[in-house]
């Protein structure tokens, strides 16, 4: 079966190896595991993937991934508190939701501005963001972009677009909880020092 | 969508997190990747899993995983060369096939003997192995079990069963190709030293 590359199992291994975090070796291991747990895992996983392939869609309003045209967060009136959190990616939105600290709505850009990759404001739903600020009576836009050069460039561009229309904030920078100074980069230590607070 | 635990996407994340090598965080990342590559990856993967769930089966003769009652290796007459390689697991069989050095047939035990887990010879296809040695006119049984205590205990048990019926061999132990002495355990160095060869 290993020699016949058209074999169903080989096809599955090749597909699994395309997942982030799995290489060819771990894909083989995962497929063997799936075959052993056919009823408990392989069949449910196949069914679940088919369902998600049919039902998953991007929220037309914010870019979140869900199973309806407008996502649960955008349809939840309790979250219309005037705060709008701008993130690069759906993964970042999920991370914010896990933290559970933010009670407003999101706007998912779907990446960062990049001259090299020809990604301009239109590709990133930035015009839609500007529209939403007015349409949803937003009072504060929180730019929760990654602390990378591309993320910060994009944050500056958005800040320019929304200047004087709305309160603009960004996440605080500093020492992460549980972080050891010895393992932090100089930039983080500098940022934490500059933003030091009286206790 | 993150708050509704019956959501299809949450179900898929929970199932993916059960794969070896993926935790909750990497499962979320994988699912986002799948949703983004719906046509290229998610749908083909779902279809491939359904197919494998229906077609994958253990070879009745050797325990290999394939898509027919008797696997390709067992039906290939060119591999009836009198050599039988005993491995613990299908993953080990695949590893041997990748190396491409062995041209005979396999016998997959499906584990190792373990008094603690109540795994005896019957659970490991050992009676079937003894039958095959006679039925398939095997001249050499290569015990390619893992160099762990359980693997070696099982190898000794099998060797006892087949004593005087057939030539018994095991894989050579020594320094792995590309291995640095400084990073090898004492047992490997001892084995390599004892089995040293004249050049």
TrEMBL record, chains A, B:
GO-annotated molecular function: DNA binding; zinc ion binding
GO biological process, one term: DNA repair
One Pfam assignment: RecR_HhH
Toprim domain span: 82-176
Positions of C4-type zinc fingers: 59-74
CDD domains, sorted: TOPRIM_recR
InterPro entries named among the record's database cross-references: DNA_Rcmb_RecR, Rcmb_RecR, Rcmb_RecR_Znf, TOPRIM_dom, TOPRIM_RecR
Keyword tags: DNA damage, DNA recombination, DNA repair, Metal-binding, Zinc, Zinc-finger
SUPFAM superfamilies reported for this sequence: Recombination protein RecR (SSF111304)
Record function comment: May play a role in DNA repair. It seems to be involved in an RecBC-independent recombinational process of DNA repair. It may act with RecF and RecO.
UniProt similarity note: Belongs to the RecR family.
Protein name: Recombination protein RecR
Gene coding for it: recR
